[in-house]
Design a protein that fits this description.
The chain is α+β, with helices and mostly antiparallel strands. It has one domain (2-98). It contains 3 helices and 3 strands. The chain has helices at 33-39, 75-88, 95-98; strands at 2-9, 19-27, 47-54. The chain has a 3-stranded antiparallel beta sheet, sandwiched between helices. The longest helix has 14 residues, at 75-88. It is globular, with a radius of gyration of 13 Å.
């Protein structure tokens, strides 16, 4: 199982209100994150961008704190976690990684 960061947005909403929330969930692959997030109640809909948080490797450097797991995160919380993920060197996914 891997940890994934999800960022939800709706481009049809007015500028400044397009971000719907973020979430960190554990799933077997990127595609499964959508279902896992929905089951956990942290998928508000809209489009989603998915990013690895950590993979099951001994050298994974980012530990997902329990308070950030499996819940919808606000813009402020998401920005804080995003900075942490960037500094930890997390790898963005592309559409072909998910399909």
């Amino acid at each position: 199982m891997n940890w994934f960061w999800l960022s939800f947005a709706d481009a049809n909403l007015p500028e400044g209100s397009q971000f719907l929330g973020g979430a960190i969930v554990q799933a077997k692959d990127a595609r499964a994150t959508i279902v896992v997030a929905a089951d956990a109640g942290c998928n508000p809909g809209g489009g989603v961008q998915i990013q690895y948080v950590a993979r099951n490797q001994p050298n994974a450097v980012y530990v997902v704190l329990e308070r950030w797991r499996d819940r919808l995160l606000t813009r402020e919380q998401s920005e804080q976690i995003g900075r942490e993920l960037h500094h930890a060197g997390c790898i963005p996914l592309t559409d072909k990684d998910i399909n």
